[in-house]
Specification:
Layout (H helix, E strand, L loop, with lengths): L1 E10 L34 H7 L3 E9 L8 H15 L4 E5 L7 H9 L4 E5 L21 H9 L6 E4 L6 H9 L6 E3 L10 H12 L4 E5 L11 H15 L4 E3 L12 H11 L5 H15 L7
Parallel strand pairs: 1-2, 2-3, 3-4, 4-5, 5-6, 6-7, 7-8
Amino acid sequence: MNRIPFIDAHVHLWDLSQLRYPWLTPPFADDGPNGSVEAIARDYGLDDYLADASGWDVRGIVHVDAGADPRHALHETRWLQQMADTRGMPNGIVAFADLSYPDLDALLEAHTAHANVRGIRHIANWHADAKRSYTPRDFTQDDAWRHGFARLAHHGLSFDLQAYPGQFAALAALFERHPDIPVMINHAGMMLPGEEDEWRVGIARMAALPQVAIKLSGFGFTRRPFDVEIARGIILSAIDAFGTDRAMFASDFPTDKLFGGFDEMLSAYADIVGDFTDGERRALFAGNANRLYRLGIAL
């Protein structure tokens, strides 16, 4: 077993009999931004995760919205909170909310009535290449969405950002106006092939904002399968920009199972930062997630 404590900052669980997940529903195609997801289109519960992570000293997990039907957002939160109350995990919940939803405050209030809710994610990936886009347009430019983002502060919620670097400049300007809303960049900023310079500029812009942190996972989304040398460059550049106190490793399981194995990827991450100090490695693998998501886990 890897002895360093691990708080997994990005996990998905699903029970296909509980909720409907459009992206996990046939027919499956290989031309979308994730490629075919047929291999993971089956139930994935806490025991499945713990089996995959059995070689690691998992102290806690943060569950991030798993792409359920938007109408079921609150149902997902209730299901996860019940699991946490019974099993002790997930320790943190990042729920779904469409930030342009007219009755957003009521939905956010309903989410935060559950003890483990810490933040909101609304996937925002838009790209000029339609095969890269998760959304039909860049809704982060809409006034209603920006107003909804501002409401997160009132509810004490952070925001998990899944977007492409081409969107970062405008988003950073928005985040700069709301320094009281912590932002967690998902999947290392999702660098696309041929857009490395755009990623570096966008990451630097985001890293200049002290309330923004970055999660190091999901390296197969834009380059499949997992390539340790590409991951190495992205990880070290991201840590150089954000520092060892605003970066955190995550498995993104089971989604990253599409690209490689749990031990394969996590061991690679550990090797990449193998020459960091013990304190830095402990922060990257557990301490930062514990602090930034306000989990209160004894490490």
